[in-house]
Amino acid sequence: MSDVTVAVDDAHVATVEIHRPPENYFDAALIKELADAYEAIDADASCRAIVLCSEGKHFCAGANFGAASSPADEPRSLYREALRLFEGATPVIAAVKGAAVGGGLGLALSADFRVASPGSRFSANFARLGFHHGFGLSVTLPALAGQQAALDLLLTGRRVPGEEALSLGLCDRLVEAGALRPATYALAVELARSAPLAVRSIRASLRAGLLERVEGALELEASEQDRLRGTDDFREGVIASLERRMPRFDGR
User: Which of 121, 193, 209, 219 is most exposed, with the fewest beta carbons within 10 Å of its own?
Assistant: First the structure.
């Protein structure tokens, strides 16, 4: 069974849903499925907007560092697929239910818009794991929240609730949890009612140079992740996270 499903309706909206509940951890295979879905949707003239959503408790809790094989072990294969998400021509609106953590935050920020609820949580928790951020967050996070806010979120790894996420620009709409999927779909329908050729043209103009910046950032991020993966701090960060305690870093 596929971990990603696609449903297209008469309103020209494609709903792309991740099925790895409850946490919806990702790996290169999942991101490849998403990229393949985006690519197929781009080729379908009846699709004019994408709703990206997830089954289960959380939008995406990032990488599963407790698994035998983690995406952190092979960042370049993962990021080759992640880059394809940014290559897509169809606008994407993410329904951020629950948490968007680490690479899950990167996935959320790869979308054009995000709809969240007060209970949604956004977290770039990499430094708390002794690790370097990835998924193009070097580009997307400062672009949305500003340089200082991005520095704050990346260095502290703190959780940002829905209300603060809205004020920072991490999400574009804030609705009650029960209205999250309908509100995301409504925004997608609104986009789909505009002239599709104009929408793609305007979007491409505003995203000019983005793909190149993200590609460069992904290479740098992967290199730093390779370097830090061998440190004692990273091992301690992962163990502390799995044991649900504060890490004790020693800078080695």
Answer: 209
Q: Are strands 13-18 and 49-54 parallel, antiparallel or unpaired?
A: parallel
* Distance in angstroms (rounded) separating the CA atoms of residues 250 and 196: 54
Q: Chain-centre distance of CA 136, in angstroms? A: 9
Rounded CA Rg of the chain: 17
CATH code at position 27: 3.90.226.10
Token pair recorded at residue 144? 């949305």
Instruction: Summarize the chain as % helix, strand, coil (round to 5).
Output: 50, 15, 35
Q: What is the domain extent for residue 64?
A: 4-178
pTM of the model: 0.95
- The CA distance from 176 to 244, in Å, is 29
For 119-134, what is each residue's pLDDT tens digit?
999 999 999 999 999 9
Q: Is 242 domain-assigned?
A: no
**Residues shown for the chain:** 252
Per-residue model confidence as pLDDT tens digits over 200-241: 999 999 999 999 999 999 999 999 999 999 999 999 999 999
Number of domains in the chain: 1
Among residues 96, 28, 13, 22, the alpha carbon closest in space to that of 59 is found at: 96
